[in-house]
């Protein structure tokens, strides 16, 4: 009954009965898996569980010590709003309120990876305050996400073109998280795009 309901809710046919009722597919699947089930050490009834409950249980029962300690990887991506928000973003911050180095002679051609741009931005009190507040927020949230056995979190920082402000802030956030012991993957999606 649970499996029939789940297939009904997703409105997908069973792969073993694409042209027949879902129940036919479930019965065929059970017949195919019967020899495997008879040899199983553990059978889990997921009838009352969400996908999150099942993930926790499988992780708890089958993750190696190394996997259990691996924790959460944080992806920090800089981007330009004019090029669209990165797909799969879990958390996003807009830094377009910071003064734009694009309009400063000598900085337009550089990026947030270059020291003069970073110094220009760090001279703004708002840059440092935002870095601190975002760092505190992420350091508060990450253990909560990890507790839910998430293995990946996508954090994105956007400015207009994705070359100066978002890059510098993404680098700063990456440094904060790395210093706190979190594995970080940095990506500057739009840094090479032309204006």
Structure write-up:
The protein has 195 residues and is of the alpha/beta class. Helix content is 47%, strand content 13%. Strands 2-3-1-4 form a 4-stranded parallel β-sheet, with helices on one face. Helix 6 crosses helix 7 (165-179). The relative contact order is 0.17.
Top keywords for this entry?
single chain, 4-stranded parallel sheet
Residue share in β-strands: 5-15%
Shape: elongated
Poorly predicted tracts of residues? none
Question: How would you write the strand order of the largest sheet?
Answer: 2-3-1-4
Q: How would a crystallographer describe the biggest sheet?
A: 4 strands, parallel
Number of strands: 4
The percent of residues in helical segments reads: 40-55%
Rg from alpha-carbon coordinates: 24 Å
Distance between the termini: 57 Å
Mean pLDDT: 89
Order of H and E elements: HHHHEEHHEHE
Tally of alpha and pi helices: 7
Structural class: alpha/beta
